[in-house]
Design brief:
By secondary structure, the protein is of the alpha+beta class. The protein contains two helices and seven strands.
Length: 110
């Protein structure tokens, strides 16, 4: 790893190779540099939603593949909403994300 780790505790397990993922200054990286898994803190998807990539959100993404985030910003409506951010990793150079909305209950409430 090029940068020193911010915390010696791993954030989680790499979904590509199974090794530990650590937080470093620019993001969260697999301990195996050949693997190439990384979630950058300056991530365009999160920036468009006006949210930061945090240790807690990456830990949830690594554990469950998704994390529930409140106050996501919609550029189209200029409003905020709550939804799951789902990690959509295709083993490519970059990890991608998508939005999933929680199911509505029978009363029509969230």
């Amino acid at each position: 790893m090029g940068y020193p780790t911010i915390n010696d505790e791993p954030v989680g397990v790499c979904p590509r190779c199974g090794k530990d993922v650590y937080e470093q200054k620019p993001g969260f990286f697999c301990a195996d540099s050949v693997c190439g898994f990384a979630v950058w803190k300056k991530n365009k998807f999160f920036e468009f939603k006006r949210k930061e990539v945090t240790r807690e959100s990456v830990a949830a993404l690594l554990k469950d593949g998704r994390v529930f985030i409140t106050g996501l910003y919609s550029d189209r409506t200029k409003k905020t909403y709550d939804a799951y951010i789902v990690m959509d990793d295709t083993d490519g150079k970059f990890v991608h994300f998508k939005i999933e909305f929680p199911p509505k209950d029978d009363t029509g409430n969230d």
